Amino acid sequence: MQTVMNYLNDESGATAAEYALIIALVAAAIVGALTSLGSNIGTKLNSVGNTISGS
């Protein structure tokens, strides 16, 4: 617990708010990439399914 308190009270470098903003931006980028990737995978799987079924 003392280690966490020391980390939170440490004012050298970036603050906790800046870390939170960085984490939020990285998370948003990951969500965007996964959404796009999931959509592309779904399209490819539908294409493969249609090819296999002869449609």
What does it look like?
It is a single chain. The chain contains 2 helices and no strands. 84% of the residues lie in helices and 0% in strands. It is mainly alpha-helical and 55 residues long. The protein has helices spanning 2-9, 16-53. The protein starts with a helix and ends with a helix. The mean pLDDT is 86.
List strands and helices in order, with pairings:
Blueprint: H1 2-9, H2 16-53
What is the structure about, briefly put?
With 55 residues, this protein is mainly alpha-helical. It has helices at residues 2-9, 16-53.
Features of this protein?
55 residues, mainly alpha
Distance between the termini: 62 Å
Global mean pLDDT = 86
The class by helix and strand makeup works out as mainly alpha
Helix fraction bin: over 70%
- Radius of gyration, Cα only, in angstroms? 22 Å
The helix count comes to 2
What is the tally of beta strands? Answer: 0
